[in-house]
TrEMBL record:
Protein name as it appears in the record: histidine kinase
Enzyme class: transferase
Keywords tagged on the record: ATP-binding, Kinase, Membrane, Nucleotide-binding, Phosphoprotein, Transferase, Transmembrane, Transmembrane helix, Two-component regulatory system
Phosphoprotein among keywords: yes
Catalytic activity, EC: 2.7.13.3
Span of domain Histidine kinase: 218-427
Keyword Nucleus among record annotations: no
Reaction catalyzed: ATP + protein L-histidine = ADP + protein N-phospho-L-histidine
Highest taxon in the source lineage: Bacteria
PROSITE patterns: HIS_KIN
């Protein structure tokens, strides 16, 4: 029977890199939701594979077995195909250096077992938890079946006495079963820690938003009242003054309007929750917004291309959704500094993790943004415009999140920007898309 101490050592070797990854990467400060650090995943996987191979579990007299295959799976799933392939080759080199050419008899089995992780690696992030847990049981099972097949072949066709000891067979079954459930636990811990990291980032954003909201609620109304009075008297004086001073009055009114817009943004942050939930035809909403924005875009020499599917519906606040889309389009127009620019708006229905979403893509050929600028988007008072307040995009983010949606910016300097917005879709039965929109 295998020693419990050896099994526990192998188990610890598999779990330790998960917590090291959390300590070295996930627990660091992230301004946006953290992404997988593929290189770190690969390094930790390879380092712990070496330790696994140095302390194998002895199963009978003929061979030892380790949990290292699980780290290979992890390298493919969380590091990507390239990292997984590099770790696989590195493991092969290390086996050759440590045990010689005769140790390669089990390496083809590992190649077979890694086919499934290799195939599903690009889609792994988008899988639901349940699907990940099921696959985490299937992957080691394929590996174990290949090992059992090799033992059966060796016993029947080459060496009848290769493994005839029932105690050895029982030990092998116990170890393989433990390996299977260790993989499940490994994936569970990884997903749990990653979710915690995402929640931490959301809490940090929420705290910032609450501070701004409290400030907005306490100041905005008090400032707006005197501004309204000043604006009224300026308009009265404008009618009585000669033409020489009217330009000054016009400038004062423009700046008052700008102050009013800033206060409105503050109030929108203070009321970041949905005020009304109604059925919205996003198809009609997008056409309406693009019609409104087309004149503003034309003045800037920007052409709008609209490609929106029919019958796109969501539940939410019509006014706030309109404001969010207009903010995104306005930013896109202002990012185009040359004439003959374009903004392309696409919207369609998309299924993600068995849930239907309306996906809106707004693409421009503007100046683009650097990685550092992308990470700070949505922060209070952060703006890339000379006269920007840094509140408009923050309001947009809060509106989309309040509608249980997601917004993502993709950009490179000089290559334009893409904005991806996902909003939970509502499917209507035929004949039910009436005037309740």
């Amino acid at each position: 029977m295998p020693h419990l101490k050896d099994i526990l050592i192998q188990f610890a070797i598999i779990i330790i890199p998960v917590f090291l990854y959390e300590m070295l990467w996930l627990s660091r400060y992230h301004s946006t939701s953290p992404k997988q650090n593929r290189l770190l995943v690969g390094l930790l996987s390879f380092f712990n594979i070496i330790i696994c191979l140095m302390y194998p579990i002895e199963v009978g007299k003929h061979f030892g077995i380790s949990f290292s295959i699980l780290l290979l799976f992890s390298a493919f799933l969380y590091g990507g195909r390239l990292i997984g392939f590099i770790v696989l080759l590195s493991k092969g080199v290390f086996i050759y250096v440590l045990y010689g050419i005769h140790a390669f008899k089990l390496f083809p089995i590992e190649l077979i077992a890694c086919i499934l992780p290799f195939l599903i690696a690009p889609m792994w992030v988008g899988y639901s938890k349940r699907k990940k847990f099921v696959l985490s049981l299937i992957m080691p099972t394929i590996h174990h079946l290949a090992i059992i097949g090799l033992i059966y072949f060796r016993t029947i066709f080459t060496d009848f006495n290769y493994i005839r000891n029932y105690e050895t067979i029982l030990s092998l079954i116990i170890v393989l079963t433990i390996i299977t459930f260790t993989m499940l636990f490994h994936v569970y811990i990884r997903e749990f820690l990653f979710e915690n990291a995402v929640i931490r980032v959301q809490m940090q954003k929420s705290e910032k938003l609450n501070i701004v909201s409290e400030l907005a609620a306490s100041v905005a109304h008090e400032v707006r009242n005197p501004l309204t009075v000043v604006r009224g008297f300026i308009q009265l004086l404008e009618n009585e003054e000669s033409r020489t001073n009217r330009e000054y009055f016009k400038l004062v009114l423009t700046e008052l309007d700008r102050a009013e817009n800033i206060i409105t943004d503050y109030l929108n942050i203070a009321k970041h929750q949905i005020e009304e939930s109604k059925l919205i035809s996003l198809t009609d909403q997008l056409h309406e917004v693009t019609t409104i924005m087309s004149s503003f875009a034309s003045l800037q020499g920007v052409f709008l291309q609209v490609n929106v599917d029919e019958n796109l519906y969501i539940i939410g606040d019509r006014t706030k959704i309109k404001q969010a889309i207009m903010n995104i389009l306005k930013n896109g127009v202002e990012a185009i500094q040359e004439t003959k620019g374009y903004i392309k708006i696409d919207a369609c229905l998309e299924e993600i993790n068995e849930k239907k979403y309306v996906k809106i893509i707004v693409k421009d050929n503007g100046v683009g943004m650097s990685k550092e600028q992308l990470e700070r988007l949505g922060e209070p008072f952060y703006s890339l415009k000379e006269k920007g307040t840094g509140l408009g995009l923050m309001v947009t983010f809060s509106i989309i999140e309040a509608h249980k949606g997601k917004i993502e910016y993709l950009s490179d300097n000089g290559k334009g920007t893409e904005v991806h917005v996902l909003l939970p879709a509502v499917e209507l039965e035929e004949g039910n898309n009436n005037d309740s929109v």
